[in-house]
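Task: sequence design from structure.
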């Protein structure tokens, strides 16, 4: 098992030649993705407790979701106590530096974060909408809903930033001044319901699956304190090495075919050279705005 040194930390990395994705993408290539792009990924993870969807044998193998610190965590990896709603606490990993990122990436995981930071559990500094299309609707319909939400959020003084979910849909994120998750949840629900009323036949705000065919479900529930969202730049446990990748609003406006927003591991370096981190403003607390009263 090779051992590498990352910023002074020794890390054993296992099974680098193991094929993780059906297209032949190996674990070594997965690890290279996180090593090469830690500078843009880490600001979106910093100080946020991680939930991990592990898929060590690829997306077709066993997948399991964990919030507790995985066994064998080095003593230098930051952990935090996260209160449980029913009492007690979970011990979760917090990835604040490249060695910790590489250690957790070696487990082959999706990275999921809440909308709040470890020091203030349940106090949100981000707002998120997960736009999930019900077939035959696609990400093209998600883009139409995203544009409506962008304009409606702007009317309330909030700036929305889009990214692919890494699956079929889109995520919209806003930086907000710290507020109880109950408040961000209530605001997100109200906007989702307003969008559904304004876009009949296109959007729904109800979770019932029987209502979803041909429409975009605006999932506002990920603003709840206990929920998490796939982090920017995480690879997904999908049949292809899809990335939850930031988008320009021009890409959202011009999308007429789902393939236009099918962003995979090999696409990311060129996108970053062209655009940099499109979600960087989310990490600048000076840009955060208060929820409307």
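Answer:
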């Amino acid at each position: 098992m090779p051992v590498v040194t990352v910023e002074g930390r020794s890390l054993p990395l296992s099974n680098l030649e193991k094929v993780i994705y059906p297209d032949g993408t190996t674990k070594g290539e997965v690890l290279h993705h996180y090593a090469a792009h830690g500078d843009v990924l880490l600001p979106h993870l910093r100080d946020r407790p991680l939930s991990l969807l592990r898929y060590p044998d690829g997306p077709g193998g066993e997948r399991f979701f964990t919030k507790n610190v995985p066994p064998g965590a080095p003593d230098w990896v930051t952990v935090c106590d996260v209160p449980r709603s029913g009492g007690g606490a979970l011990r979760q990993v917090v990835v604040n530096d490249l060695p910790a990122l590489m250690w957790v990436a070696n487990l082959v995981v999706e990275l999921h974060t809440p909308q709040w930071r470890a020091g203030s559990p349940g106090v949100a500094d981000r707002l998120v909408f997960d736009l999930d299309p019900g077939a035959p609707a696609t990400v093209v319909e998600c883009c139409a809903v995203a544009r409506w939400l962008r304009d409606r959020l702007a009317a309330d003084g909030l700036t929305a930033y889009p990214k692919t979910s890494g699956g079929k849909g889109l995520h919209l994120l806003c930086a907000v001044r710290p507020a109880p998750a109950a408040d961000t949840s209530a605001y997100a629900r109200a906007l989702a319901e307003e969008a559904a009323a304004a876009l009949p036949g296109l959007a729904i705000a109800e979770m019932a699956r029987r209502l979803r065919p041909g429409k975009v479900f605006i999932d506002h529930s990920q603003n709840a304190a206990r929920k998490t969202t796939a982090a920017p730049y995480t690879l997904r446990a999908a049949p292809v090495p899809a990335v939850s990748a930031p988008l320009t609003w021009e890409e959202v406006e011009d999308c007429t075919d789902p393939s236009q927003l099918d962003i995979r591991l090999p696409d990311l370096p060129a996108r970053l050279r062209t655009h940099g981190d499109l979600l960087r403003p989310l990490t600048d607390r000076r840009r955060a705005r208060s929820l409307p009263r």
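The mean pLDDT is 95.
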